[in-house]
Amino acid sequence: MKHASLLLLLCLVFLAGTCKKDTIATQLAGKVWLHSFEEDEGQVLTYRPNTFDFPPSRGRTGFALEEDGVIKQYDIAPTDGLEEHIGQWQQTGRKEIQVQLPGNDRPAQSYTLEIVLLKDEVLKLKRVPSPLQQQTE
Asked: Burial level of 92, CB count in 10 A (0-12/13-18/19+)?
């Protein structure tokens, strides 16, 4: 009986170790999130997956987080298409993601995404420039 209890305990420990944390970042990663500006509420921006049936618009900005810490930010290009900018992201708080985009052909960007809500394919967030970014603007 002692051996069976010990074996059961070891199995539970191994199973607990294989459970993946369901963090905000893992919920966001692997999707392209597009700005649903029609649903914005003041400083709170609304994003939906690119598979959402958006109303017609002249373009939508967005982003994609990859699990290896790469962010792809999509901005509207001068030719009305999308322009991709690649940078780095990391989760810095329970509901905060820090983003760094290098300058290259435009000014570098650093900002924090504060997650207000992530539920049922709706992402609401606030974009807060880093203190250093605020000084240069």
From this structure: exposed
Q: Could you give the angle at the alpha carbon of 57 between the alpha carbons of 52 and 62, nearest 5°?
A: 55
- Phi, psi at 52, each rounded to 5°: -70, 150
35 vs 50: CA distance, rounded Å: 9
pLDDT digits 0-9 by tens, 16-65: 444 445 577 788 999 999 999 999 999 999 999 999 999 998 889 999 99
CA torsion 21→102→45→53, rounded to 10°? Answer: -80
Phi, psi of 33 (to 5 degrees): -100, 125
Helix, strand, or coil here: 68? coil
Paired tokens of 44? 């709170």
- pTM listed for this prediction: 0.77
